[in-house]
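Cast an eye over this sequence plus C-alpha cells and walk me through the fold:

***
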Amino acid sequence: MKVHLLALLLVIGAAVAVPAVSAKIVEEKDGYIVMTGPDTLNVDSLNLRDMSLRSSSSISQGQSQWYATSVSSGNTAFYSGLNWGNPSNSLTLTIYAPDSLFGPYYDDVDGVIDGWINVQITRTGGLTSGTWRSNVYGHSVTGSQSYTYSAYAV
C-alpha cells in the first residue's frame, strides 16, 4: 500500500514539475517548423531595435495588405504577430518566404478564437535570407477592423 501511494505521489510530482507548453507545431515543411500560440511572440520582451516591422492599420472585407520583412543570413527564427482583438471579425495571415509559403493561418490556429494570431517559423540550418512578405487578409469583416501587425527575424 505504501509503495503504491509513493508511486502515485511521484507521478503527480513529475506532472506538476513539467512546464506546460502552450505553443504547438502547426506545420512542418521544407525543413521549417511553424509553431503558434501565445508564447511565440512576446513583443514586450524585445528591444525596439529588434523589431523589423510594427504597423497599425485597418482592413475591410476582402481587402489584402502586404508587409515586407528583411531576413538576414544566419537568422534561424521568424516571428509574426497579428492582433485585432475582435473575434467576431476574421482576419488571416499568410507568410511568403523566398522559398516557401506558410498559411493562411486563421484565428483558431492556436486553438483559441481571440482576435490574435502568433506564428514562429524556425529552421535549424537557418532561414532563407531575403525579403519575407506577409499578407493580412480581411476574411470576414463587418465594416472596418483595426489591427496591429509585427514581424522580426533573429
In short: Confidence is low (pLDDT under 50) at residues 1-21, 42-50.
